[in-house]
Amino acid sequence: CRTFMRDAEAIACSRRMNSLTLNRHTEILEILEIPQLMDTCVRNGYYEEALELTAYVRRLERKHSSIPVIQGIVEEVRQSAQLMLNQLIQQLRTNIPLPACLRVIGFLRRMDVLTEAELRVKFLQARDAWLRSIQASIPDHDPYLHITKTIEACRVHLFDIVTQYRAIFSDEEPLVPAEGAAPAEGAIFHSWVLQKVSEFLRTLRRDLERGVGGRLDSLLGQCMYFGLSFSRVGVDFRGQLAPLFQRVAADAFGKAVEEAVEKFREEMNSYTLISAPAVLGGSAGVPVPTAQPGTLQPPMVLLDFPPLACFLNGLLVAFNDLRLCCPIALAQDVTACLDSALGEVS
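RE: above sequence
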């Protein structure tokens, strides 16, 4: 009899649980479908609804963390939240406008998985990856084409990234913190900008060394405009451009003068006074044109000495190329180079 009573009580208890489960069937089913609904929202880009589901699951976890079913639901929702995090960061690696950037960062902040400093670093890393992909797609066979396309890409896209960062994050703290204080979060952006400027200067130096022909003046103008446009956001690097172009102009001038001296030596090896008709009086009847008043021209008598005339032409070509991009700081170097060349010739 007692066994029957116990069995009856167990059956009654089970029946009450089944009745309660049946009455709450809709609510239980909604809870069990949360992982599937979360995955659907994430994969279709409904991040607002996904964040609401995440917040609801967190409340369930705090109330019923000991229930195995709830633990399984929490784990599946966390996996979907990780997928959502990856998707949002991936969006920052594309050509995304400022409003979309603001929306993505807003979602990341509401997910509450990254600190403010980590969020800044993730943003800069993602945008930097996108910028590098654009730079990597620029053809590298022609140095002039490569550097001009790089200047254009950096000027447009890097300026957009700086604008987006400053619209999303506030950097009101000083870059250099007080003694004993933690580094300011604004130093993250400052360091990144310095890195990008340094990378551009290295690319510019490499392409200048490869040679851009006689278009040095055009390239200098583009670089100066690039630096001027960045002065509006406090990143004016035009002062670092002058030494690069100064060295390239000096090297080009020195190479041209050296070639003129070498050519003069070769011609002098085969030159004799017999081949100079003016010296022997053979061209005495040929009129020599006179220079116009107020003009600067080499003396026509050099025509009687072809090696000297060719050497002068080589120097004039070097000066004409230098004229296109002639920093005033090169005056002493050019004078020394020319003095050395004239010494070798004489």
